[in-house]
Specification:
single chain, 827 residues, alpha/beta, 9-stranded mixed β-sheet, 5-stranded mixed β-sheet, 27 helices, 24% strand, globular
Length: 827
């Protein structure tokens, strides 16, 4: 085999027992097919392995088990990766392919119970994290589905310990691990023609780099029948826009020369099942026909809007664009010049960040297309917010093609392209009478298809009259200039680079074309930026005054709502803001909150410690159709002005807000307020309450039999509030209704920041998690800024004690402390 003789093939694998078994199956098959090849297993940790207490739907779906492997293949760290085909996302990274599909094993799901154990609960508790399994098992009687995560052995142990009455697992995984021999359990096989499995279930797929030598080896492992079934199943899922959030099952098989496919999907009218059959060679066409049968008679459930955000400044979006944003149900957005636009969408709008910026794409374009289709098929009003104009190098056309293929209606809302708007803000007109009668806009991206170098004919570009404008090309500035001069453009031609155009932190560098790269380098300009070449670059038609924080970079952490307010205030003063980490709000079980709703007469106060708690509380009331008049006898406390204002937005005026916006101030102030207003605790003795441990698993203070305080809040809520109430003899129920998960930003991207802001202790812990020493060292050069002393105290736990602390716990407070620090530095 020439090039592959005596070589080692490195195979990436997760560390779970099942993953290792599957990887070894592939390794053994390779070594059997090619004795001259030795396989080396390379263990990797994925996001899905790290986050085990949350549904996959909440933090990335199936891609949570694949992303790290794909990056390692592209980097050359491994040659191939082994996956359970059902766990693979619909879209692989550019440059990768499925190199081999192994023979399909048992595709069935299995209902597992403990032998001899009769369920005493009603409804029965069934463990599964799959929406597909949930909707199908609900057809089988009085059951309640609860989240089940962890490896196969962990899931079985949870079942045996009584957390569940039954769980659903894949037969292939159980068989590969030899667990059907476990005498503790009973196994009921669910036939795939009725209990439709996930696309790819029972199949092992091997991912590799396109064009790599290892594909010659993998060809020997490939099973054509399994490959045909897998590709047809994935075709169905792609056409339906179905990721792990969708309750969709699809199964294909060949039998007696006939290719059979079955589909199950959840619709607004309940579950539907469809089937189709034909010749194996028509498998992909059959997949398309099956989708048509499965959606026949349905009107497009939702609609997508492609909205141009304009050149940067939030005030430059169109009026129509603003109107659409205010009605958004799902917002899919890129990195924006100003995130103040995010404050226009409703509080309950689902926000999906797909963050495309030079050299760092959170989501591939194919994934973005899938998200738009999937969310629209859920019946949502989906807004795709894109910087500039959707059709000016915004890949809006590709998104429309995907929407059209799925039969989803769409509307395009134009935006002001930065090619004109940013230059105009910098005082550069793209046309001027007798100087530039025309202008030309190009992409400055490196061509991914043409190999090294830039795309386009620069010898032609150099001879064009008027103004030449290059978007997304600042990283390639030297090469662009060289090619233009080599093509005949005069090196003395006026040229300019504009970054953060239309924003108060905008920077402009002007120079002759030949001197432009050096001038930009000396100025320290970084992408994204716009390059302009032409006589108009000599004009200075601007009177913009720099903001107080111009030239300062601030990394902002926190939830989307809080980040948006902070970014808006900092941007107004000229600061450049970068994403330093995002806190995601994820609902906890609503069971205890529902129980509280069932008898609200037990409570006399509801205490809210965040806007998130208010939102989820009232959202759940609407979902459970709880009459708002049941709140009539209750009083409400809010931790601060922002939470109080949000409470007022739902029609409730808070009865108490502390002067200082901290949990400690809320606790002490509320107790004082209660005593001044004659609201006694009703406790037997305060001493007995002090003995009560707040760490109780139920989080219910036994101080009194009735008239409790209801505290729906974050899972990580401070104990200060509950400890203070308990010490004073007040009864309460502390109900966690949401958790905070932090999406970390690479520390290398924050090293140029001057400051990083933190809004909460949980945000600090999420920022440091798993990288404590490296994160702490960042603050040797970057100054942290905290909202409140409590957040600063958490930061100090990691050895970072130089934080600036805002006395006013708001976005204005952050701005105030930053301005004070800049004034101190200037002295």
């Amino acid at each position: 085999m020439g090039a592959i003789k005596r070589r080692t093939v490195r195979i990436g694998t997760r560390k779970s027992r099942l993953a290792l078994v599957q990887t070894n199956m592939v390794a053994e098959a390779i070594e059997a097919a090619c004795p001259e090849v030795k396989c080396e297993l390379v263990p990797l940790m994925t996001k899905g392995d790290k986050i085990l207490k949350t549904s996959l739907v909440a933090f990335g779906g199936k891609g949570a088990f694949v992303e790290e492997f794909e990056q390692s293949i592209l980097n050359g760290d491994i040659d191939l990766a082994v996956h359970s085909a059902k766990d693979m996302p619909m879209d692989l990274s550019d440059g990768l392919c499925i190199g081999a599909v192994l023979k399909r094993e048992d595709p069935r799901d299995v209902f597992v119970t403990v032998k001899g154990r009769t369920p005493e609960r009603s409804p029965r508790i069934i463990g599964t994290g799959s929406p597909r399994r949930q909707v199908q098992i609900m057809e089988h009687g009085d059951v309640e589905c609860r989240l089940l995560r962890g490896n196969v052995d962990t899931r079985l142990e949870k079942l045996y310990q009584g957390e569940y009455d039954g769980i659903i697992l894949a037969a292939a995984g159980l068989n590969r691990l030899g667990l059907f021999n476990d005498p503790r359990f009973s196994f009921e096989f669910l036939e795939p023609e009725m209990f439709i499995p996930a696309g790819g279930q029972g199949i092992i797929a091997v991912e590799a780099k396109k064009g790599s030598e290892v594909l010659k080896i993998l060809k020997k492992l490939n099973d054509k029948e399994a490959e045909r079934a897998l590709f047809a199943e994935r075709k169905v899922l792609r056409l339906l826009g179905a990721g792990c959030t969708a309750a969709v099952g699809v199964y294909a098989k060949e039998e007696n020369g006939t290719f059979w496919m079955g589909l199950m999907r959840e619709t607004k009218n309940g579950l539907i099942r469809r089937k189709i059959s034909g010749a194996p060679e028509d498998s992909m066409k059959l997949a398309e026909l099956l989708v048509k049968k499965g959606t026949e008679g349905e009107l497009p459930a939702g609609k997508a809007y492609l909205v141009g955000a304009g050149p940067g400044n939030g005030g430059l979006i169109t009026v129509k664009g603003q109107q659409i944003l205010k009605a958004a149900e799902v917002l899919v957005y890129d990195r924006l010049g100003s995130e103040e636009l995010l404050t226009l969408v409703p509080e309950d709008c689902e926000r999906i960040y797909v963050g495309k910026e030079a050299g760092h794409h959170i989501k591939k374009q194919s994934e973005i297309n899938r998200i738009l289709v999937e969310k629209a098929l859920e019946g949502k009003r989906v807004i795709r917010l894109k910087g500039g104009d959707p059709f000016v190098f915004g890949r809006g056309g590709e998104e429309i093609q995907a929407l059209t293929e799925a039969g989803i209606p769409y509307e395009v809302i134009p935006g002001v392209t930065s090619a004109i708007g940013a230059l105009e803000a910098a005082g550069i007109p793209v046309t001027h009478r007798n100087i530039a009668r025309d202008f030309h806009v190009f992409t400055g991206h490196i061509s991914h298809e043409g190999g090294e170098g830039l795309s386009g004919d620069y010898s032609l570009y150099a001879k064009l009259p008027g103004t030449l404008i290059f978007l997304m090309g600042l990283s390639n500035l030297e090469e662009i200039v060289k090619r233009l001069i080599d093509g005949g453009k005069d090196g003395e031609t006026p040229a300019a680079v504009v970054t953060d155009g239309t924003l108060s932190r905008m920077r402009v560098v002007r120079a002759s074309l030949k001197d432009l790269p050096e001038a930009v380098r000396k100025a320290g300009l970084t992408p994204p930026g716009i390059i302009a070449v032409g006589e108009v670059c000599a004009f200075h038609f601007t009177s913009m005054v720099p903001g107080v924080l111009t030239g300062i970079t601030v990394g902002v952490t926190g939830t989307e709502a809080v980040r948006g307010r902070i970014i808006s205030r900092l941007s107004d003063e000229g600061a450049k803001t970068v994403r330093a980490g995002e806190s995601l709000v994820v609902r906890e079980s609503m069971e205890r909150l529902d129980q509280a709703f069932a008898d609200l007469s037990r409570y006399r106060w509801v205490i809210f410690t965040s806007r998130n708690a208010v939102r989820i509380f009232f959202d759940r009331m609407r979902e459970r159709r709880v009459d708002l008049r049941k709140l009539g006898s209750l009083k409400f406390a809010a931790v601060g002005r922002g939470t109080g204002e949000y409470l007022e937005s739902v029609g409730i005026t808070p009865d108490f807000i502390p002067e200082e916006y901290t949990t400690k101030a809320l606790a002490d102030g509320l107790v004082k307020y209660l005593k001044e207003n004659g609201e006694t605790s009703g406790a037997k003795t305060a001493a007995a309450n002090v003995a009560y441990s707040i760490s109780s698993s139920e989080n219910v203070c036994p101080c009194a039999e009735a008239e409790k305080f209801l505290i729906p809040r974050a899972k990580q809520g401070s104990k200060v509030l509950t400890e203070t109430l308990a010490e004073q003899g007040y009864a309460f129920e502390d109900i966690p209704i949401y958790d905070i998960l932090v999406e970390q930003t690479e520390l290398a991207r924050l090293k140029t920041a001057d400051y990083i802001t933190f809004e909460s202790g949980s945000g600090v812990r999420g920022f440091f998690a798993g990288r404590e020493a490296e994160a702490a060292s960042l603050f040797e050069t970057v100054r942290p800024v905290c909202i409140g002393k409590v957040t600063a105290a958490v930061l100090a736990e990691y050895g970072v004690k130089n934080a600036l602390t805002a006395s006013d716990y708001t976005a204005d407070g952050i701005l105030e402390v930053l301005l004070a620090d800049r004034n101190e530095i200037a002295r």
